Amino acid sequence: MKPWTSTYFSFSLSNPASLGDIIMSIAKHYETGESLPEDVCLSIIPARTFRGGSQLLCQLRYAGVDLELHSNYVPGRPESIYDIDQRWAEVLAYDVFAAFEEAGLDNDQTLREIGTRFRETVLALGGGKLPNEVFLEFRGREPLPDSFLRYNGLLPAIIAA
Hints:
Blueprint: H1 6-14, H2 20-26, H3 38-49, H4 52-71, H5 85-103, H6 108-125, H7 131-139, H8 146-151
Helix pairs in contact: 1-5, 5-6, 6-7
């Protein structure tokens, strides 16, 4: 796996935009300040994950072709039609954001602590260590695919109480 890719950072920074409570907190009418109706907000999330399984299968097929090409690699030719690291970067990014979700997005003190840990590990060490090592320092465990699968609509969403 390549050292930290920009893909990891783009996914970790864009992930929160899809969450219902965040959408509800920022989506306001430009003149009246009225919040987005909850039913409209709740319809956005399923629309984002529509056909998530099909899209993931397509990406996995690309990865399979990529691996096949690597096994038949000839120097001087392009070695990849698909960057397999992108899927893994997504798994890491969604699992990182899950640390903030698990703390509760309305728990300011805990979010500050996690944000500081994020800054001191992921942001500070990013290019100096392998991504899995940095992730382990931040989360204290190996990456799990659950958040990635949930974000893509392949596991049920966790509804905040």
